[in-house]
Amino acid sequence: MTTTADTLRTHLHSVLDDPARAWLDRALTGAATPPADPAAAPAGSGPPAPRKPMPAWELRFAEAGRRCGPTHADDARVLLLLTARPDADTLRPLYDRGTAAERRAVLRALHELVPGTEAVPLVEDALRTNDTSLVAAALGPYAAEHLDAHTWRHAVLKCLFTGVPVDSVAGLGRRAAGDRELARMLHDYASERTAAGRTVPDDLHRVLDLTAPPAERGHLPAAAGGASSKES
C-alpha cells in the first residue's frame, strides 16, 4: 500500500536537484535510525547521566528550508516527521520553538503521528494566530477528528473572516452536516457584515448549504447579503 510518506518521497525525488535529493536521503536515513541512549549513570553517588542529545533529524528539520528551498521545505519536513515518528511530547517543543514554516509541517503531520487528543493544544494555538497559512494547516484531518464542536465552529468562522478558503477545512461536509448552531453563527455573521455595508464571502453560502439536510442542499435562501463578490 502506498503511504503518505511514500507519496511525499516520490514527489520530492522528482522535483529536487541532485544535492538536495542526496541531503534528503541522508536526513531520512538518520531519522529512521533510533538514537543511541546516553550512557547510564553509575550506581551510587556518581555523576548523573549525560543529557540526551537532540536527535539529528531535528537539526535536519530546521535545515530543510536552506537545503530544499522554500517551495519544497514543507513537504521535506513532513516527510522527516513521518519517518522519525515522534510522539506528542516531542512534537510540542518542536512546534513551540519552530518558525511558522516548521509549525506548519508539525500541524500537517499530526494526523499520522498522534492517535489521540494530546496534540489538540497545538491546533488551538495555531488557530489563535493571524497567520493564515497556520490556520489552514491546523484544520487538516487531525482537527476534523479531534477538535470539539465549539472550537471547530469558530475555526470555520475564522476562515471566513481571514480569507482562508474553506476547502482547507478537512471533513467540512461531514462535520457541518445538520449543524444548526453553525448555521445560526453563519447567519449572524452574514447579518453583521451586511449591516456594516460589507460583502458576504461566497464560502459562507457554501458552508451554510452544507448545514442543511441533504434534500435541501442547493435550495436554501441566501444568507443576509445575498451572493457576493470580493471586496475591492
Automatic annotation (TrEMBL):
Keywords: Isomerase. Residues 31-54, 211-232 are annotated as: Disordered. Residues 31-44 have a biased composition (Low complexity). The keyword Isomerase applies. One of its GO terms (molecular function) is isomerase activity. The keyword Isomerase applies. InterPro entries: EboA_dom. This is Sugar phosphate isomerase.
